[in-house]
Predict the 3D structure of the following.
Amino acid sequence: EPEVTQTPSHQVTQMGQEVILRCVPISNHLYFYWYRQILGQKVEFLVSFYNNEISEKSEIFDDQFSVERPDGSNFTLKIRSTKLEDSAMYFCASNQGVIGTFGSGTRLTVV
Amino acid sequence: ELKVEQNPLFLSMQEGKNYTIYCNYSTTSDRLYWYRQDPGKSLESLFVLLSNGAVKQEGRLMASLDTKARLSTLHITAAVHDLSATYFCAVDMSADGLTFGKGTHLIIQP
């Protein structure tokens, strides 16, 4: 069964550093998403991406965040200057139609 | 702003019992999803409900949707330990992102 692949599975970074989280969506999917989940809390929508541009973003997705699809297969989330409160699980998802598929997530720890 | 509320947020029950998790949402929506999440793991899609009165069943889980009441339920029949997990409902307003409830942490004890 096709999967959404995320790398790395866990990343530790120092406050103020830039991180790039990577995702390979399912190949024939056209809609891509990033969500985050702070430990023990609900899943929160960050951004959706379609046709090589952002289609919607939440209040969380401020200027320190950016997304891109650099090579037609990868979908990346960049956090420019990480803060302690960015520590969370970040999930990528993709869909084509009704049902989306989530990746296994990247656990980001900012120290 | 769309709000999605689940209750209960925490549920401890015995094997063999039945129980229902409720998901209320604040505005009209096209789609409602139920996901399961095991600790430290990703979200596993359980059900997608697309219309008023939709009912779907998979094993001991059954989900229903009442769009007029803006309510979905996830019913657990004769619970078994393997169903212990956190269950999230999520509502989709359009082709864009999902709005999740806070989740129901379910513990099923022998």
User: Anything to note?
Assistant: The longest strand of chain B covers residues 85-92.
